[in-house]
């Protein structure tokens, strides 16, 4: 999108003879996107101020204006920082642990049949259990609720990363492995120089899916057993009947989740320069 | 253990004795090749000619060391072949360059594995890239190159290791006719300069004769050596060679040999080649076998 845009603006002579259709398309599509957001907000505002009552009771739904006021109030309170920091710390710990263990075991399982035979069956049994279903046992298992929440985050991220890593290893073109062996590569070099980079696109996909599911799991865990954290804050707002704060919490979860997925994407693009959009053309 | 021919720099003598390769259960094996006896001289250029699915790629995989033989032995310079090695470089039909490495990174890969210092391996990689005509493309990724250029990098990546034996599995068959001819001439040039032994698998009669010192004609189901046709055309060879009377005579010889093969009545009497049922090694050694 950007490249097209710049090309039409950059080549002056061309732009004069052809009246920049790319630019118009660019402006039009953004105008449409903003208009649709405004329209949604307007409907929401109308519905809650007029108290529409269908199957949704809009009199309990805070209006966008109330949410904005609540946001301004909350941003000034010192408590907000500790909620965000607590959630981020749990995500960081749980997700990092999951990334290291899932990528490591995924590489080994994908490469060695023996490892697959030894590990896959228990993992396949555990995999369909949603992270949320782990919450009661996690609370009992760990000495502190903090550990149990990190564990739930970990479980949420682990399986998507594992499955994608295994898939990445197994779908690697085997000729690349043979070619590397006829160039003098031993088993360790094959692993480091061929299998790991070859599986990397799949691994990054797994990490970005895992990031989404780890947020999902964390918020649920915080609602049930938390002290501080965005999920806890949102649930607390409900129990204290601070309805605008519920929406603030939801938006915060959305924004933080989006930012962390964006980070994963950027990191992925950075370590896979051969997949950058410009690289695919001569 | 020693390499007897290496005294005068001539290395890469290959000996195949009664080689057989089969896949599947011992009770009902699928025989890919059988009873292969072949001696290749150091520095010789051999073309293996045969129909698709005759087991010639499988045999090449065995010489490279990643397909185990079921019978007989393969020996290079007095040493039995058991594992893949940088001494036996392989070029496949479709490029096997690492998509995540640049042209330079791919080319210096073998040197890096041998612990050659960065400065020196850069220099040697640049040299070999220049000799395959790719100076200036060092920073590109494989996907940014044309098919012909990809095979040039492939060739450079193998030759930078100075292998004693170069194995080529229909390396130019996916290229257009003009590019193919350029690549054939380039290969001959490099071979004349480096003097490694070359074993070149192809189903193209012209290509086999144009390149080689000897054409080994394969028959299928199971793969066996049907005929060996020495090619005594003068070198260096150019496009003119392709229309000389001697070339035509050799071509007629090859064609007769192949025609007998395709008319043979027991052509379909064995399931020697069912690509879907073969192990991954075979599928990899013959990636485009129909």
What this model shows, in words?
The complex is a heterodimer of chains A (282) and B (290). Chain A is mainly alpha-helical. Chain A has two domains: 2-59, no CATH class; 71-273, MetI-like fold, CATH 1.10.3720. Chain A is 79% helix and 0% strand. In chain A, helix 5 (79-111) packs antiparallel against helix 10 (187-225), helix 7 (135-141) packs across helix 8 and helix 10 (187-225) packs parallel to helix 11. The model of chain A is unreliable at 1-15 (pLDDT under 50). In chain B, strands 6-7-8-3-9-10 form a six-stranded mixed beta sheet, sandwiched between helices. In chain B, strands 2-1-4-5 form a four-stranded antiparallel beta sheet, covered by helices on one side. Chain B has two domains: 4-87 and 163-285, 3-Layer(aba) Sandwich (Rossmann fold), CATH 3.40.50; 99-162, no CATH class. Residues 1-9 and 265-290 of chain B have low confidence and may be disordered. In chain B, helix 7 (205-211) crosses helix 8 (245-263). Chains A and B meet through helix 9 and helix 10 of A and strand 6, helix 3 and helix 9 of B.
Question: Which percent bin holds the helix content of chain A?
Answer: over 70%
Strand order of the largest sheet of chain B: 6-7-8-3-9-10
pLDDT averaged over residues of chain A: 87
Please summarize the sheet with the most strands of chain A: none
Q: What is the strand content of chain A? A: under 5%
Number of helices of chain B: 9
CATH architecture of the largest domain in chain B: 3-Layer(aba) Sandwich
CATH architecture of the largest domain in chain A: Orthogonal Bundle
Q: Could you tell me how far the N terminus lies from the C terminus of chain A, measured between alpha carbons in angstroms? A: 19 Å
Our count of domains of chain A comes out at 2
Q: What is the overall number of helices of chain A?
A: 12
- H/E order of the elements of chain A? HHHHHHHHHHHH
Radius of gyration of chain A: 24 Å
For the secondary structure, the number of strands of chain A is 0
Amount of helix of chain B:
25-40%
Mean pLDDT of chain B comes to: 85
Principal-axes geometry of chain B comes out as globular
- CATH topology type of the largest domain in chain A: MetI-like fold
β-sheet strand percentage of chain B:
15-25%
């Amino acid at each position: 999108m950007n490249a097209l845009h710049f090309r039409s603006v950059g080549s002056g002579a061309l732009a004069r003879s052809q009246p920049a259709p790319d630019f118009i398309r660019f402006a039009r599509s953004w105008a449409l996107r903003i208009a649709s957001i405004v329209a949604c907000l307007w409907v929401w505002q109308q519905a809650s101020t007029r108290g529409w009552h269908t199957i949704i009771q809009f009199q309990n739904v805070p209006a966008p204006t109330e949410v904005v006021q609540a946001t301004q109030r909350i941003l000034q309170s010192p408590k907000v920082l500790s909620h965000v920091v607590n959630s981020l710390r749990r995500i960081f710990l749980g997700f990092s642990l999951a990334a290291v263990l899932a990528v490591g075991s995924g590489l080994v399982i994908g490469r060695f049949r023996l490892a697959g035979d030894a590990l896959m069956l228990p993992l396949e049994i555990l995999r369909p259990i949603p992270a949320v279903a782990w919450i009661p046992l996690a609370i009992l298992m760990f000495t502190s609720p903090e550990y149990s929440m990190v564990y739930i985050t970990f479980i949420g991220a682990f399986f998507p990363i594992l499955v994608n890593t295994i898939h990445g290893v197994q779908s690697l073109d085997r000729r690349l492995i043979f070619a590397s062996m006829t160039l003098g590569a031993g088993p360790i070099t094959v692993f480091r120089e061929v299998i790991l980079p070859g599986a990397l696109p799949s691994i990054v996909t797994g990490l970005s899916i895992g990031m989404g599911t780890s947020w999902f799991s964390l918020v649920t865990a915080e609602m049930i057993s938390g002290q501080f954290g965005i999920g806890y804050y949102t649930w607390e707002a409900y129990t204290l009947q601070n309805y605008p704060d519920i929406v603030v919490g939801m938006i915060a979860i959305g924004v933080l989740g989006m930012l962390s997925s964006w980070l994963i994407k950027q990191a992925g693009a950075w370590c896979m320069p051969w997949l950058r959009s410009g690289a695919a053309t001569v | 253990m020693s390499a007897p021919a290496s005294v005068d720099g001539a290395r890469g003598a290959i000996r195949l004795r009664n080689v057989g390769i089969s896949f599947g259960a011992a009770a009902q094996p699928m025989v890919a090749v059988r009873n292969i006896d072949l001696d290749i001289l150091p520095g010789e250029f051999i073309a293996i000619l045969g129909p698709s699915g005759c087991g010639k790629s499988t045999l090449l995989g065995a010489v490279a060391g990643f397909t185990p033989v079921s019978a007989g032995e393969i020996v290079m310079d007095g040493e039995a072949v058991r594992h893949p090695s940088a001494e036996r470089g392989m070029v496949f039909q479709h490029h096997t360059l690492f998509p995540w490495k640049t042209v330079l990174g791919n080319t210096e890969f073998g040197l890096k594995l041998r612990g050659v210092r960065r400065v020196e391996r850069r220099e040697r990689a640049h040299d070999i890239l220049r000799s395959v005509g790719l100076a200036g493309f060092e920073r590109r990724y494989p996907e940014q190159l044309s098919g012909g250029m990809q095979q040039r990098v492939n060739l450079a990546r193998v030759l930078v290791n100075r292998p004693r034996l170069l194995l080529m599995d229909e390396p130019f068959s996916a290229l257009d006719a003009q590019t193919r001819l350029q690549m054939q001439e380039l290969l001959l040039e490099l071979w004349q300069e480096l003097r490694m032994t070359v074993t070149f698998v192809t189903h193209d009669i012209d290509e086999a004769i144009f390149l080689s010192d000897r054409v080994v004609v394969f028959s299928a189901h199971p793969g066996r050596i049907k005929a060996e046709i020495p090619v005594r055309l003068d070198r260096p060879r150019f496009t003119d060679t392709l229309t000389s009377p001697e070339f035509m005579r050799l071509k007629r010889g090859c064609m007769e040999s192949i025609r007998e093969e395709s008319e043979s009545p027991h052509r379909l009497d064995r399931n020697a080649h069912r690509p879907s049922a073969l192990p991954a090694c075979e599928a990899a050694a013959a990636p485009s076998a129909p």
